[in-house]
Amino acid sequence: MTEPAPPSRRRSRRAVPWGLVALLALLAALAGVVGRQTWAGLDHIDRMMAERSRTLYRMVATEVRNVARYGAARLERLDEVLGEVASGGDVEGVSLTRVGGGVALARGDFPDPLPPLEADGRSFVLDGEALLLAGPAAIVTQGCGGCTTCDSVESGCPAAGSQAIDGDYVVLLALDARPYLALRRGVWLQALAATVLLLALLGGLLAYRGQLRRAARMGEALAVADERSRALERLSRVAGGLAHEIKNPVGSLRGFAQLLAERAAPGSKEAEYAGLMVQELDGITRRIDRLRDYARPAPPELKVARPNEVIRRVAALLEPDLAARSLRLALELPPDPGPDARLDEERFRDLVVNLVMNAIEASPGGSTITVRLARRERDDRLVLEVLDRGPGIPAAERDRALRPFHSTKPGGLGLGLAVAQQAVEDHGGRLELCDAPEGGTLARAEWPRRADGGG
């Protein structure tokens, strides 16, 4: 048996879908714009919060220094000023604390506990709905301007003892961050909406790409079907004439050859030559039958039958072919009588005969061919498998092997697997070729147990 020819080196070049590439590039650019705009929006809000908090801090620090610089009752006035700051605008709380202790004034509300803060007057911290910023403030008091006893508490001067509040302070502000958080949510919502839109567009592009692929596969399938249709049309015109013009003369020649074999002395050259003539004429008859069967346009006649019985009859019919090649046929069938099914028995027989004959021609001497039938319960389909131990069929050749007139065997007509495929399709099923688990080819046919003859 000659090994199948290597797959063709010619590769079909798929056209680059430049339109799809351009749309994907546009989507990527839009995604970049959305990301950039989102980042810019959030950065702008952060800068707004920083600028607002720093401005308020500078105002409060300046007010604290000015109030504490002159006049009496400085602590009471500082407390009033802090109260005025805490009660106005977007300030939730303000505190004034001297470094080293001694003075601590606070008005308004603060988060509890306070998060760590850098008292540099620039860095802010978001804590829930509060915007916190701390910074330094130095207080230097001055006397009344002409009193020499200003620093004496007993002097009675209203500014006496004012130096007691001099020092370095920390001003802490707690601002209402809800307006800024609302702006942040708006930016994120816009980014989310844009992302959803981009994902929807991407999904549409992927769906469109899938449709293009399905259309391409459908086009290929239609091209194959058109090729088969044209081949069938050609066959239908010649098969009838061949069957009539050749089969009858071949039958007569076979009869004469058999008569010569019977009259020749056993073991003689004449008997050997006559036997070879009979074998070759039988081969010609089988080829004519395959042509006629493949071109047969009649619809299948489905009747209730037992696949087990048909397979056993085929096995008995092919015993001489198996013995001639020293092959063994192993049947793995459901327990008799096996499942019933709606079959066109003649076409089912064609399916089994052609699959087994293909396995016989591919198998090395002394090997085993396995025929396996099973019923798949989940979808009520019958599965027929024929395994050989031959060289196998390359993946690139499997689709072509099912087409008419494609054969890798010397002198082969290339109709065996095509007839088998047609028989399966007549029962509403499909035939596929794949690698057998232990080497060789596995031909698997499956079809509805209650076939209606649909494709």
Please give the structural blueprint.
Blueprint: H1 18-69, H2 74-86, E1 91-98, E2 104-108, E3 124-127, E4 130-139, E5 167-176, H3 178-245, H4 247-263, H5 269-294, E6 303-305, H6 307-317, H7 319-324, E7 328-332, E8 341-343, H8 345-362, E9 368-376, E10 381-387, H9 398-401, H10 416-426, E11 430-435, E12 441-448
Parallel strand pairs: 7-9
Antiparallel strand pairs: 1-2, 1-5, 3-4, 4-5, 6-8, 9-10, 10-12, 11-12
Helix pairs in contact: 1-2, 1-3, 3-5, 4-5, 6-8, 8-10
Outline the structure in words.
The protein is of the alpha+beta class and 455 residues long. It folds into three domains: 18-141 and 161-239, no CATH class; 246-295; 301-448, Heat Shock Protein 90, CATH 3.30.565. Helix content is 50%, strand content 17%. It has ten helices and twelve strands. It has a five-stranded antiparallel β-sheet with strand order 2-1-5-4-3, with helices on one face. It has a five-stranded mixed β-sheet with strand order 7-9-10-12-11. A two-stranded antiparallel sheet has the order 6-8. It is rod-shaped and about 150 Å long. Residues 1-13 and 144-162 have low confidence and may be disordered.
